[in-house]
Amino acid sequence: MNNSKKVPSSVSLEDYGIKHNNVHYQLSPSRLQEITLEKNMGKEASSGALAVNTGEFTGRSPMDRFIVKDKITENQVWWGDINIPFEPSKFDALYDKVIEYINDKELFVRDCYACADVNYRMNIRVINEYPWSNMFAYNMFIRPTNEELKNFDPEWTVINAPGFMAEAEIDGTRQHNFAILNFTRKIALIGGTGYTGEIKKGIFSALNFILPVQKNTLPMHCSANVGKKGDTAIFFGLSGTGKTTLSTDAKRKLIGDDEHGWNNENAVFNFEGGCYAKVINLSAEQEPEIYGAIKKGAILENVIMNDAGEVDFENTSITQNTRVSYPIYHIENIKQPSLGENPKNIFFLTADAFGVLPPISKLTPSQAAYHFISGYTAKVAGTEAGVKEPIPSFSACFGAPFMPLHPTKYAEMLSKKMQEAGVNVWLVNTGWTGGPYGVGTRMKLKYTRAMINAVLNGDLGLYNYKEYHIHSVFGVAQPRKCPGVPTEVLSPRATWNDDDAYYKTAFKLSNAFRENFEQFEEHASEEIRRGGPQRYAF
């Protein structure tokens, strides 16, 4: 990855207030894995991957994510439960405490960058308390060449101190953990949590503000790949909807699996240098590319292994959010550099646990904007205490926890770009069919892949009443036939064999869409409002 010229052997951290010299700079992932094993902070799996336990937190903590309210953010950020304001003076005081805490720690420092498009590149310095966290930064951010490291000037800094515990009543946090963005000081300050996702999502959130506000570029929580003819496809979706799985296709080159920008030069570019995939129920048969990426250099999080180091991917005794991070080059079929042209097709992925949305449907521009703002998926029974039946879950722009601006800002940018590029937009239900969760079954991956392949190959026919049926509740156009998919599967109502139960459930979900959208109505155009469900139950 790097050329042979000499890399700087050390870096000064005095500008951050760190005065000691116990700093490891730009260590190789193999050396970081060795140190992690030496410190008994992880174990090696039979595949050669490093397995770690992230501790108390096995996922992000949205209520402990803050943005410093300053001159840059005060009138731009959509403040509320998602973007929680933090006082500049409180940040400065907490920053000093964190620096005091890490000043006598062994530290691991990495210079890297985000955004594969050189015109949008952001130089990043990551300062970690733990070696495996620094290995994660190697995997997930883009790796500079040795030549680029010679005069590397970091624009943003991530300071990651999992062992530091805040005092909420003094420090202004909600509890002992926190992830705070400061746009004036250009710092992401993370403490009290070992979950590595906070590192990448901190920078992603910063870019979600910087790109649209300062560079007129749309940031997207999506995966992307490109076909042999240069046709780019984008996959939006929340965790568990298949975003990583469906974009990782041996027949198409992967651009990236989670975070991208779409610029005014008609290019889509990856923010990252790696992938961070869920591994719950992972198998070599269903997801061979991801399974094969779990090798030396990959980091498994919160998985259960036997004494031989073999991973039980079905075991969720620690968390259902078991994950692996790996550098993108662990996938054989990748686009280098991680850029693509204007997308031809965009897929909105949802895991509808009510089982009423079609497995695939085509959206009009107004429907696309509506569903983008809504960002629907569903929680299923058993995932949280007290959940007895499916619960609608909405996350604006399919990534609300990382979006500092009002969702309609991103939706307007997306709508404009889709219309300019003539993009086809599809809603894909990777959730349940034949009934809701507990009654029906999960949509077969082979069917979902067949539907997506049919779109990419142009096999779903023209958008007309002969080829498509307009759903009577949601108003979306579902194809009447698709190569490789039984015809009855394409109609969710037909899979139920109980029209009354189907429509009762469909109306329930349509009402949930309407109630969720009330918070956006005053900011949404009439065209966007018309994109919602066509009928409601009262």
Explain what you see.
Helices cover 26% and strands 24% of the residues. It has 14 helices and 30 strands. Strands 11, 12, 13, 14, 15, 21, 22, 23 and 26 form a nine-stranded mixed beta sheet that branches. An eight-stranded mixed beta sheet has the order 1-6-7-8-10-9-4-5, with helices on both faces. Helix 9 runs antiparallel to helix 10 (407-421).
How are the SSEs ordered, and which strands pair?
Blueprint: E1 23-25, H1 29-38, E2 43-44, E3 50-52, E4 65-68, E5 84-86, H2 88-102, E6 107-114, E7 122-128, H3 131-140, H4 146-150, E8 156-161, H5 168-171, E9 178-182, E10 187-191, H6 197-215, E11 218-226, E12 232-237, H7 243-247, E13 253-256, E14 259-262, E15 267-270, E16 274-278, H8 288-293, E17 299-301, E18 304-305, E19 311-312, E20 323-327, E21 339-341, E22 343-350, E23 360-363, H9 365-374, E24 376-379, E25 391-394, H10 407-421, E26 424-429, E27 432-433, E28 441-442, H11 445-456, E29 468-470, E30 477-479, H12 492-496, H13 499-517, H14 526-529
Parallel strand pairs: 1-6, 3-17, 4-5, 4-9, 7-8, 8-10, 12-22, 22-26
Antiparallel strand pairs: 2-3, 6-7, 9-10, 11-12, 11-13, 11-14, 14-15, 15-21, 16-20, 17-20, 18-19, 23-26, 24-25, 27-28, 29-30
Helix pairs in contact: 1-3, 9-10
